[in-house]
Amino acid sequence: MLKRSLKNLITGDRNTEPIDMMMDDREMMPMASSDCVGCGRCVDNCPTKAISIDDNKWRIDLGRCLFCMDCEMVCKNRCISEVPAPDYALTREELIFDRDTDPSSVERCFDRGICKRFGRSVAIRELDSGSCNACEIELNNMSNQFYDAGRFGIKVVASPRHADALLVTGPMCVNMSEACKRTFDATPEPKLVIASGSCAISGGMFVKGDVIGEGVKDSMDVAMYIPGCPPEPDRVIRSLIKALRMRH
Amino acid sequence: MMMERMFVPSDRVHDVVSEYVNDGYGIMTMFAEEGGTVNTLMRRFDSVVVICYDIEGHAVPLSDITWNASLYERLMSEMSGVTFSDSNGGTIVYRRKGNGHPLQKEGYDRSTEVRIPIPKNRTVGDDIFEIPVGPVHAGIIEPGHFRFSVAGETVIELNPTLGFVHRGIERLMETSVDVDNSRLVERISGDTCVANCIAYSEMMESDVDIPMRAKYIRTILAEMERLYNHIGVVTGMCTDTAFNVPSYAGGSIQEKVLRMNFGLTRHRMLMNAVVPGGVRRDIPDSKLKELDDFMMILKFEIEELESMMDNPYLADRLETTGILSEKDARNIGASGPIARASGIASDVRKERPYEMYGELGLRINTSMKGDVQARTEVRLEEISDSISIIHQCIQSMKPGETRVRPKVSDGFHCSVVEAPRGELVHCMTVRDGKIWRYNVRDPSFINWFGMCHAVPGNVVPDFPLINKSFGLSYSGNDL
Q1: Average pLDDT, stretch B44-50?
Q2: What is the CA angle A184-A185-A186, rounded to 5?
Q3: pLDDT score, position B58
Q4: For A35, A124, B134, B285, which has the most beta carbons within 10 A of its beta carbon?
Q5: Prior bond of B102 cis (ω within 30°)
């Protein structure tokens, strides 16, 4: 063990991803091209009804999308393809895209004032409001050797009282609502609420189940949305760095 | 798989069930259907019986035959509103809910929350303190509430309160059989999505034979899932004992497996891969070659991790901590690695083979000790078994179809799958092409009680360690 540690120290043989590589990486999302005739097969097959066609206008709600690419498989004209997706959005409306638009344009930063308050580091308290554990595993992976969120100043803290931001996952179950409210109240101002994952943004698969409203936004003021089911660790890190203008 | 239900009059149920229990059958799950039918599923090796009766007045309590029946009875009375004439009921299964019973088709009002106060522990006395923990924990884990009664450092009693992540999945499943619910089933528990989806798909394709290649791919994916779950738990043991070098090494091995998963199915947690009727995408041979090479590397890395964990300080924390005796494990009906670590040689993959497991060589790894160390060892052995199974699958795979149209007929269906956490049971009743009742029993539901038996007698700082060694799911339990 010691031998290997020393060897890695000397040769610089590390698993950690270079920062540039991680910042340039993008997840993919479905997008229809101008060949779309509006047959509606993708609408019928979408498990969360993320796609809608009104007056031949194809539209996707990234807040509901599970990124399963079922729509790509069922499209007869092969007009749905994968395009680079935005990592985050600051409002819910920005996550809805029309056909043939450039999705990466929605990544705005917070106001200078907010960015200045948080400075170069952000302490996150993860709050599970009823997720399926996939989001939790991915957030745990955020601090492994490959992503190493600590080097960017992102750390996960144990108590809401130490936190700058609440990262909420899950569709806000009826049973968790009280605990979530208390955790929110326990977090000192100024605080950010980040809705991470389709469940937290729109209720996802569970919107008709025993949950409150459509996602976390009906219970708390959400400042930032990170789509994905679950959002990959690098996506969460990138979103925080970009939105808060953290130095990297 | 389609099952014939054995209907018995309600006054004979008690005798029939006790006969089966004496023959060595164990209860897999019990659930009530709307309209007052109670189903009891029992299994011994590969034979499964479904004993079914209509409720007349009160339901028949079976908890005097096997202890674990009381858990299901408690669940039925809370979720479906079934009343028992004489049930002691576990105090542990317990859910906060809306007004009414969540599984009733009508009359459940989820907007008005009925909160039954969480009961105090029964252990009281001078110098005994009660520590409440949760539901929002310090780490990145799911919500659950625990109450410890401690005398000094030693835990005397532990009662968990679960049900915080109840999302009403069983009710959401009640759709037409033509609707593909596999996306929902995968999200029962995000780290058991392949096992859940295989269980669902096996029922949905009861009238068709699925292609061989699809079966092989499913087997590979199920083993990949087992790999990253088990590596996660083994790594967790090192993290919880603050043994950082193997903890980070294990973390990077897990990340490599997750990245391999992405290469195979375009999803790191293997979601969206299995569908009723086969698999969504074929895995090209080039990827399989890559997977085979990766398995060789993984084998070395796991060996290295094992050698790092061969450490007296770690052994001091793990050995004789959190012992679940074989007697307790049998009474509870524990399953999966937890049962195997307590000396019960039970594995659905071997006893009731599904997919390709019948034709592959696999062992049942057991240990007699039943402590945290035993559970870690069993998992480490299962990791090397999974590597061997994946290798065998890749060797014997042939090109072919991977997806057919699923078909299901009316009746009672049931499937049993060995998930990474243990025996996973899905059942459903189909009436006129609609799912009338869908029931899921996650292995965690039973194993939670195993943990409650294992913790008392240990010190409080060992609780996270014991909890992690059981590796239980909150969302699978709460549904």
Answers
A1: 87
A2: 90
A3: 80
A4: A124
A5: no
pLDDT of B378 = 92
Residues 120-179 of A with CB under 8 A from B: 126-128, 130-141, 144-146, 156, 158-160, 170-171, 173-179
Residue A241 scores a pLDDT above 60: yes
DSSP string, B184-218: HHHTTSTTSHHHHHHHHHHHHTTTSPPPHHHHHHH
Chain B contact set for A232 (CB, 8 A): 268
Q: Please, what are the domains in chain A? A: 24-86 (3.30.70.20), 112-243 (3.40.50.12280)
Q: Do A141 and B171 touch (CB under 8 A)?
A: no
Judged by CB atoms within 8 Å, which residues 185-214 of A form the interface with B? 204-206, 208-211
Mean pLDDT for chain A?
A: 85
Q: Does the pLDDT value for residue B91 go beyond 50?
A: no
Residue B18: phi and psi, rounded to 5, are: -70, -30
Beta-bridge mates of residue B32: B38
Contacts of B265 in chain A (CB under 8 A): none
How many helical (H) and strand (E) elements, i.e. helices and strands, does chain A have? Answer: 9, 10
Q: Tell me which residue of B433, B437, B436, B445 sits closest to B470, measured CA to CA.
A: B445
Q: Among residues of chain B, what percentage have pLDDT more than 70? A: 96
**Residue B300 pLDDT > 70, yes or no?**
yes
Which of B113, B191, B280 minimises the CB distance to A137? B191
Provide the sign of the torsion angle of the four alpha carbons B230, B234, B240, B243, taken in this order: negative
Query: At B113, is the pLDDT very low, low, confident or very high (cuts 50, 70, 90)?
Result: low
B100 and A CB contact within 8 Å? no
Alpha carbons B423 and B416: distance in angstroms, whole number: 7
The secondary structure of residue B143, as a DSSP letter, is -
The answer to whether A119 contacts chain B (CB < 8 Å) is no
- pLDDT given for residue B92 in this prediction: 44
pLDDT at B36: 82
State yes or no: pLDDT of B431 exceeds 80: yes
Q: Is A228 on the interface with B (CB under 8 A)?
A: no
- The predicted model scores a pTM of 0.92
Q: Which whole number is the average pLDDT over A106-124?
A: 82
Query: From the list A5, A136, A211, which residue is nearest B142 (CB)?
Result: A136
Query: Phi and psi at residue B411, in whole multiples of 5°?
Result: 135, -165
Instruction: Report the distance separating Cα B156 and Cα B165, nearest Å.
Output: 27
Let me know: does A221 contact A193? Beta carbons within 8 Å. yes
Instruction: Give the contacts of B133 (CB within 8 A, at least 6 positions apart).
Output: B145, B146, B147, B148
Q: What domains does chain B contain, in order, with CATH numbers?
A: 1-90 (3.30.460.80), 177-439 (1.10.645.10)
Of A5, A144, A175, the CB nearest to B96: A175
Pairing of strands B97-99, B109-114: antiparallel
Distance from CA of B161 to the nearest CA of A (A): 12
Reported confidence tier of residue B383, pLDDT bands at 50, 70, 90: very high
Residue-averaged pLDDT of chain B: 86
CB contact under 8 A, B167 and A144: no
Query: Residue B93 has what pLDDT?
Result: 47
- Please report the residues numbered 53 through 72 in chain A whose beta carbons come closer than 8 angstroms to any beta carbon of chain B: 66-70
Task: Say whether B251 and A145 touch across the interface (CB within 8 A).
Answer: yes
